[in-house]
Structures are given as C-alpha cells and as structure tokens.
Amino acid sequence: MLPILQTAATGLVAQRFKIDALANNVANVDTGGFKRMRVSLRDVGYVPASTIAPEIAPEQDAWVGIGVQVASSQMMFDQGALQFTGNGFDLAISGEGFFQVKLADGTTGYTRGGSFGLDASRRLVDANGRILLPGITMPEDAVVYNVAKNGEVTVLREGEESPEVVGQLQLARFANPGGLLSAGQGVFKPTAASGESTLGQPGSAGYGEVMSGALETSNVDIADEMTSLVQAMRAYQLTLKVVKSLDDILALANQSGTTI
Question: Residue 70: enclosing H or E segment and its boundaries?
C-alpha cells in the first residue's frame, strides 16, 4: 500500500472509532446514570517527506505526518444532574461511589443507575433484575420504608410505632474510575487500570450520599456531543474523499502503464 494511502487509512479507523463513541453517547442521553465516553486522538508520528517521495530535493525536504491513532478512550464520571421522582426505591448518589449489583455470572458489577424495586422475594433489585448488594429484603408487613442519606434502610411494620433497620447500603470507590470496563446497561467491571473496589458507608469521607426518591441523569451534554459528532463525521468524509481520489489516480496510472 502506498504510504499516503496508509496515512489516510489510519484517519478512517480513528475517526470511525470516535464516531461510534460519540453516537453511543448521544443515544444514551436519556439513560439514567449513563457516563459519556471521551475519545482522544493523536499523531502517529512524523517523517521526512523525502522518505516517502525520494525525488524531493534536500533543500525542499520537510517533516510530514504519517497518520493518526486513538490515544485514549475514557469514561467520564462527572456527576449527572439529579431528577426527583418521589419513588422511594429510586436512589441517586450525590458525590463519589457506585452501587454494587450481582451479575448473572456471580461476579459484582458497579453502577450509578439507581432505579430499584422489589423482586418476587422482596429483595431490592435494579431495573434488570440484578440484586443490589449487600442484599436487602423488605418484610412483607412493611407499610413505610425509608433509605437515609447514610444508606441505612428502615421500615415501619404494620401495627408498629418505631421504625426497624433492615439493611445498610454500601458504596464502592475506585482509585481510577476512568479505568473501569463497561459491561453494558450502565454496569462497569474493575480492571487493572481501575484498581479493586474499596467499600464504605454513604456520607463517610470520600463517599457520596444516597438520595432517596431521585435518579441521576446521564452526564451527556447533547449540544457538545452533537457538535463533536458532526466534526468527526466531517473529518471521516473528507478522509474518505482523499482515499477515493487516490484510488482514481491509481486506476488511471494502471491504465496508462505509469508506475507510482
């Protein structure tokens, strides 16, 4: 492949990756607790133009770029706005931390999405049926329930006057949340880059508070994401035109027997 085609190809691959990430951000603007992904690109490097086109005279030589690549793709965990719903099982974290949920394979996933409810066994589960950890079961005769900012879960049983503590929520933190791996549906898994989770009580040092009756919205700014998406698509289209033009030139050269 000609060096100039290789350079253009790197641009197509990098911009396609960025477009996919931005499109996913836009698609999840209304997904509770969703965290946007930021993709950064960088130059592959530079070489003297004479290494690509030997006919260039030394006095006219210059450094030229040889492509672009993805420098990083990172989840951005800045706080989303809180939307108050009035549903006591809707929980939002104001500050740092993640809820823990039990995944189908038995491992623990971490999420900022706080739309919870009760399953058939009256256990607190998320919108996809994953059990909230540590497990909390609501008594059948509970007529009033409350989740305090410190994660303490209390209920008032029928006929009783004093509330009873039935559970204590814990939040998880990571040294580098940007290194978490998305497992889909707003759930993340730890990696070597994120480090292992550290558990703590909501409201304690370094951990956010739990807000009952509220949900955290996505942290996607639709105007910013759409602007970036249009720019990335434009860059992709322009690079595609370069590839098409080079392909046409090569076709003409082949027809005329010219070597490029």
Answer: strand 68-75
Residues 92-101 pLDDT 10s: 999 999 999 9
CB within 8 Å of 126: residues ≥ 6 apart: 99, 101, 111, 113, 115, 116, 132
CA-closest candidate to residue 99, choices 84, 85, 109: 109
Cα–Cα distance measured from residue 89 to residue 32, given in angstroms and rounded to the nearest whole number: 14
Whole-angstrom CA distances from 95 to 202, 203, 207 are: 9, 9, 7
C-beta of residue 173 within 8 angstroms of C-beta of residue 206: yes
| Residues forming a β-bridge with 59 | none
**What 3-state class would DSSP assign to 62?**
coil
Write out pLDDT tens, residues 185-232: 889 999 999 999 999 999 999 999 999 999 999 999 999 999 999 999
Dihedrals phi, psi of 89, to nearest 5 degrees: -90, -5
Look at the alpha carbons of 187, 191, 195, 197 in this order and tell me if their dihedral is positive or negative: positive
Q: What is the DSSP letter of 98?
A: B
Collapse the DSSP code of 66 into the 3-class scheme (helix H, G, I; strand E, B; otherwise coil) and give the result: coil
> How do the domains of the chain map onto residue ranges?
3-77+225-256, 82-216
Work out the burial of residue 29: count CB atoms within 10 Å of its CB; fewer than 13 is exposed, 13-18 middle, 19 or more buried: middle
* 150 close to 160: Cβ distance less than 8 angstroms: no
Measured CA to CA, the distance from residue 127 to residue 98 in angstroms comes to: 16
**Is-contact 21 73, C-beta < 8 A?**
yes
